[in-house]
Amino acid sequence: TKSLKETLQEVIPAKQEQLKRLKTEHGQAVVGDVKIENIIGGMRGLKAMLWDASVLDPNEGIRFHGLSIPDCQKVLPPAPGGKEIIAESMLWLLLTGQVPTPEQTRQLSRELAEKGELPAFVESLVDSLPTTLHPMTQLGIGVAALNRDSSFQAAYEMGMKKSEYWTHTLDDCINLIARLPVLAARIYRNVYKPGNPLPAINKDLDLVGNYSNLLGYGDNQSLTEYLRLYIALHGDHEGGNASAHTAHLVGSTLSDPYLSYSAALFALAGPLHGLANQEVLRWQLAMQKEIGNVISNENIRDYLWKTLKSGQVVPGYGHGVLRKPDPRFIALQEFCNTRPDLKDSHIIQLVNKTSEIAPDVLKEHGKTKNPYPNVDATSGCVLYHYGFTEFKYYTVIFGVSRALGALTQLVWARALGLPLERPKSYSMDALEKLVKQ
Ligand code: FCX
């Protein structure tokens, strides 16, 4: 059985050739215009980034190396006894473009479990943080501190050749992915369950199986399966989203993967991005409180209007690229539909009903280009149903997941020798001058 590194080693030369071809044969080809609206509109719609692992179609949603979410659910190996995609299968696909065998995913699970321990100083560092510090801030601090052991940084100091960048980047990325669950679970324990012992990593379990165990939910197979699906689905969403883009930008300075991903986590911590899943729950619970136990279309519509009229966004709706309901949202909804307890859950019913009513209200409101639910519209509410109610922690789970895409693409950025990212900026005066020319 070929290992992840051996598989990657095999696929890199063809990709390097493809990049060379693009550069030499099509370097001057034009793929779009840059309008003033792109420059002042958060670069929305600008085709300006290379990202091989996934492409987001506005109508179809995400495809990972060409595979849609239902395709992935069919072909990517689950955990033994489970049904849902596991992080290892998704990681393998994102990194190599290939579907792993069950044996390869098991092998990778074992490798990650063996590398899962935190250095003692990171444990003490995280334990010393005030429990009032947001869990995402704690995660970012812990990830940045892990860079003490960066293989990339050490090799760089020793003068490694450019052709060796990717192997050290890969080593760091695998180590970081392996350590994220134990770091994230320690933060959860410290903030919400102080004094609880953390179980040892089980070398026979997959990454998310271990994460669930460390969080104290290992006995709940249904929640563990949900976490597996959640983490696989949030892994990558092409390159321009704020977290993936941040990892890419910081990595382009040859900052090591720990520092690059730490920066990405702080982008994920914003309410317009990953924090939305915590905001959705807060908002749905406030709605529930106001409308009481009767879930009627009218009550929900009124509450939506109240939110909009108070100048707030409806969390969990809209997207920078998507123009249809997010297939990740649909996959999570389908997960709920297959489980009677989830189907009958009050909060899930409220989420589902809201997703039926909100698009028309948002259309009538007339501002958002995409009135449909994104993945955050349901992800946190399902956790709440399971009794995992500490909603300030939800984005941390997203942070464990987004590493799959952001880090695998750092490996590729180094394998392809991508340069420092440095777009050109203009002042408003300079733009006006350009326009008048
Ligand atoms: N509720 C109310 N207004 C909304 C809205 C929503 N859900 N979504 C967009 N709008 C508004 C915008 O605020 C903007 O108003 P403005 O002209 O006064 O500034 C206008 O509609 C046009 O925005 P639009 O082009 O449709 O959306 P953007 O690409 O600028 O922003 C996000 C995309 C996702 C940031 C936006 O839809 C939003 O704020 N949604 C709510 C928060 C959320 O769910 N974020 C998670 C997104 C994602 F899934 C993730 O990263 O995890």
Automatic annotation (TrEMBL):
<dbReference type="InterPro" id="IPR010109">
    <property type="entry name" value="Citrate_synthase_euk"/>
</dbReference>
<dbReference type="Pfam" id="PF00285">
    <property type="entry name" value="Citrate_synt"/>
</dbReference>
<dbReference type="GO" id="GO:0046912">
    <property type="term" value="F:acyltransferase activity, acyl groups converted into alkyl on transfer"/>
</dbReference>
<feature type="active site">
    <location>
        <position position="319"/>
    </location>
</feature>
<dbReference type="InterPro" id="IPR016142">
    <property type="entry name" value="Citrate_synth-like_lrg_a-sub"/>
</dbReference>
<feature type="active site">
    <location>
        <position position="376"/>
    </location>
</feature>
<keyword id="KW-0808">Transferase</keyword>
<dbReference type="GO" id="GO:0006099">
    <property type="term" value="P:tricarboxylic acid cycle"/>
</dbReference>
<dbReference type="GO" id="GO:0005975">
    <property type="term" value="P:carbohydrate metabolic process"/>
</dbReference>
<dbReference type="GO" id="GO:0006101">
    <property type="term" value="P:citrate metabolic process"/>
</dbReference>
<dbReference type="InterPro" id="IPR036969">
    <property type="entry name" value="Citrate_synthase_sf"/>
</dbReference>
<dbReference type="InterPro" id="IPR019810">
    <property type="entry name" value="Citrate_synthase_AS"/>
</dbReference>
<protein>
    <recommendedName>
        <fullName>Citrate synthase</fullName>
    </recommendedName>
</protein>
<feature type="active site">
    <location>
        <position position="273"/>
    </location>
</feature>
<keyword id="KW-0496">Mitochondrion</keyword>
<dbReference type="InterPro" id="IPR016143">
    <property type="entry name" value="Citrate_synth-like_sm_a-sub"/>
</dbReference>
<dbReference type="GO" id="GO:0005759">
    <property type="term" value="C:mitochondrial matrix"/>
</dbReference>
<keyword id="KW-0809">Transit peptide</keyword>
<dbReference type="InterPro" id="IPR002020">
    <property type="entry name" value="Citrate_synthase"/>
</dbReference>
<comment type="similarity">
    <text>Belongs to the citrate synthase family.</text>
</comment>
